Amino acid sequence: MVDPRRAEWRPLPLTELRSLFLALPAPWWVAGGVALELFVGRSWREHGDLDTGILRVDQTAVSRALPGWQRFAANDGALRELAAEEIAPPEANSVWCRRTGEAAFRFELLLDSCDGGEWIFRRDPRVRLPLGDLVLRARDGCPYLRPEVQLLYKAKARRPKDEVDFAVVAPLLDVAARRWLREAIARVDPANDWLARL
């Protein structure tokens, strides 16, 4: 077991992550604050890690595409190393990855659920989106999580950086994205103060 509070992070450059995932036989996308920056087209803060989204059902394919990497399921304040093709348990929503022999973690796999052709919000299965609408692409083709979906994840247990991200990104959402985010937050957290700002 590894204590995540003491874990060292040295995030991969985005170009290296893309090269690593180039031949992945499953969909993937940049998530977290970096995804929001890809949407806006500029950076406004430092990032202590690098989040990458995949579908939970694709874990085996992803683990096979990452030879030479250690994977650790993150759950309940602890990191447990996964065996070669072991998948994370259902209660773990992320997997931290580092090269074998290195101490620093380089990227995190965020595990998203789906049902047929729909993405399902893990905190409330009533919130869904067609899988084909989940990801956008930057000018250079890099896939990233739609900003309204990323802000939905950030709407709970907000940190100062989440407030900054919302302040930068929310005004740039188009009408449909703003409506989707407002309806999703209202469904899962009707007292959330972001609603008044959407």
List its traits:
7 helices, Beta Polymerase, domain 2, alpha+beta, single chain
Question: Please, could you describe this protein's structure?
Answer:
The protein is an alpha+beta fold. It has one domain: 2-Layer Sandwich (Beta Polymerase, domain 2). It has seven helices and ten strands. The strands form two sheets. Strands 1, 2, 3, 4, 5, 6, 7 and 8 form an eight-stranded mixed β-sheet that branches.
- Overall average residue pLDDT: 95
Helical stretch tally: 7
* Record field, number of beta strands: 10
Oligomeric status of the shown chains? single chain
Strand % is 15-25%
CATH architecture group name: 2-Layer Sandwich
Give the CATH class: Alpha Beta
Q: Any low-confidence stretches, pLDDT <50, length ≥5?
A: none
Quick overview:
The protein is built from 7 helices and 10 strands.
Would you spell out the secondary-structure blueprint of this structure?
Layout: H1 14-21, E1 28-31, H2 32-40, E2 51-55, H3 59-64, E3 69-75, E4 78-81, E5 94-99, E6 107-115, E7 118-120, E8 128-130, E9 135-137, E10 143-145, H4 147-154, H5 160-169, H6 175-188, H7 194-197
Parallel strand pairs: 2-6
Antiparallel strand pairs: 1-2, 3-4, 3-5, 5-6, 6-7, 7-8, 9-10
Helix pairs in contact: 2-5, 4-6
